[in-house]
């Protein structure tokens, strides 16, 4: 009955309002690393959860990968979790971790000042654009950009942070050093979205609806070909099981210092996006922090509709969950219902 109710749930993500944000206070001193909690010896996962996840994926129309990790007990459940699927804005997590890794190494502070100008604008969701005024731009900090990138999924905030730490190669270096497995990092929002649409990036695309107009002028066969290339081999692709394992290691303190880990987890818990994705089935008394990702639409299909996060029970036990829909014609309520059903099943088998 719980599964049926979750499958029937539907809704729409809430709009995010543009506002100035105050970055939470952070220590000025360089955080000192701490020993991570050892990975637990795995036990057998709940058989009902294994069967339920498999049934949900099998019944869904589209490329889907689901992975669940018990952080305290060490068991893993996944169906389709080995597929490399488009991350879209889920990849903002790796930018955030790279920024905080730089912080842990004393290479930056969250209160470091940054000036945003119109040259920093990118495409799609970028609410911070409304705050960039005239020649003076917008005076902000690393910490505020990090908050906006994670809680609002602001593309301009994220791409400015990406350039601040040295570009895509800095993030790829972090992923490799931390041995995070089958997780790719793309070329940044501008180039990724342009390539997916079949366009070559132009600075004018950052303003108004110039990107959408240029995309609409492309011959349909060219757009379809570009879309198919992206779905088949996404430059930002990642395996759900690798993302779930990375989240589990983050929670155990294996990737960042204690203060940076706590900062990131708290920020993820305050996210404003995807309220009817995984979060839509989180019961009262449970804690949830996450990052969503949504790709472009074409002819009724969507390339990348995702939610990944950490679900914490009232008794403190926690689960890393990654639900990634790589390509689907299913409407948004059906995608959200799939995600909610996964959470509902994890909760039902928590005991």
What share of the residues lie within helices? 25-40%
Average pLDDT across residues? 90
Over all CA atoms, what is the radius of gyration? 20 Å
Tally the helices: 12
Q: What characteristic shape results from the CA principal axes?
A: globular
Major sheet strand order = 2-1-11-10-7
Order of helices and strands: HHEEEHEEHHHHHHEHHEEEEEH
**Structural class given helices, strands, pairing?**
alpha+beta
Note poorly predicted spans. 1-20, 22-30
Count the beta strands: 11
- Percentage of residues in DSSP E strands: 15-25%
The largest sheet, given as strand count, sense and whether it forms a barrel, is: 5 strands, antiparallel
N-to-C span: 18 Å
Description:
The chain has 351 residues and is of the alpha+beta class. It has helices spanning 2-8, 47-59, 92-104, 142-151, 155-164, 168-177, 189-197, 210-217, 220-232, 240-252, 258-269, 332-348, and strands spanning 63-70, 76-79, 85-86, 113-116, 138-141, 237-238, 287-294, 297-298, 301-302, 305-312, 318-327. The strands form four sheets. The protein has a five-stranded antiparallel beta sheet with strand order 2-1-11-10-7. α3 (92-104) packs across α6.
